[in-house]
Amino acid sequence: NTDGFYSYTIQIEDLTGTTTETGFDVTVNAGTPIEAELTTTLLLNQAGDPGHGALDLDEGLEAGVSTDGATTKEQTEIRDMGLDCTIPAPGLNWRRQIASTNGAELRKVDLSAVENFTFDGVTTKEEIIGAFETGFTLADGEAVNCGNGTTTTATNVSDVVTADELFVVKNSAGTRYYLLKVISVNETDMDNEDWYEISVKY
Q1: CA 110 to mean position of chain CA atoms
Q2: Which residue ranges in the chain fall short of pLDDT 50?
Q3: Are strands 105-108 and 98-100 parallel, antiparallel or unpaired?
Q4: pLDDT at position 40
């Protein structure tokens, strides 16, 4: 059934022909369908080329953490955390961590708190909001510029990201929630062209 109020009547007849009726009402609220799904969205290492390293979850477009790219940096909700400067370059020094940007909030989905929750199975906004409300909160941290040693505060920094992990993001206005599935994490050792492949629903 679609959303609405429904009344049902059941009539029972015994062997003598005597009938009786009972009724009940049901209110159906199937939830608000998701607006969009983005697949094969890429987030690149923020230590790579300018204009990459932060992601607009509405359009799936990248910007830099401090520079514009295919979209403006102000439109992004998440970022990559760049390099671990304690590991000499060239080498596998990509942190493989993400964080929130521009007042958005990033949480990791707690699968023990949302029964039978899968990215493919989510069809409503309410499911995404529920996963956010029960998700693991993430502490703030620091991103380091390995070139000059300067640090910047980053909000809601994840642990090392692995394929198949699920995250939820609330935008800065609190009006939109995004479900993220990490499809793959792809590391290179020479050029800072590392990247995540991410699917998004909101």
Answers
A1: 12
A2: 1
A3: unpaired
A4: 85
What is the β-pairing status of strands 98-100 and 53-56?
unpaired
Q: Can you say whether residue 174 is alpha, beta or left, with left for phi > 0 and alpha for psi between -120 and 50 degrees?
A: left
In the chain the beta strands, taken as DSSP E runs, fall at 4-13, 19-28, 37-44, 53-56, 61-64, 78-80, 98-100, 105-108, 136-137, 141-144, 151-154, 166-170, 177-186, 195-201
| Two tokens, residue 169 | 């993001």
Structure tokens at 73: 């940096």
Q: Say what the pLDDT of residue 15 is.
A: 79
Contact yes or no for 108/170 (Cβ under 8 A): no
Report phi then psi at 68, rounded to 5.
-80, 160
Report field, pTM of the whole predicted structure over 0.90: no
For the chain, the C-alpha Rg in angstroms (whole number) is: 23
Per-residue tokens: 49: 């080329």
Q: What are phi and psi of 126, to 5 degrees?
A: -65, -35
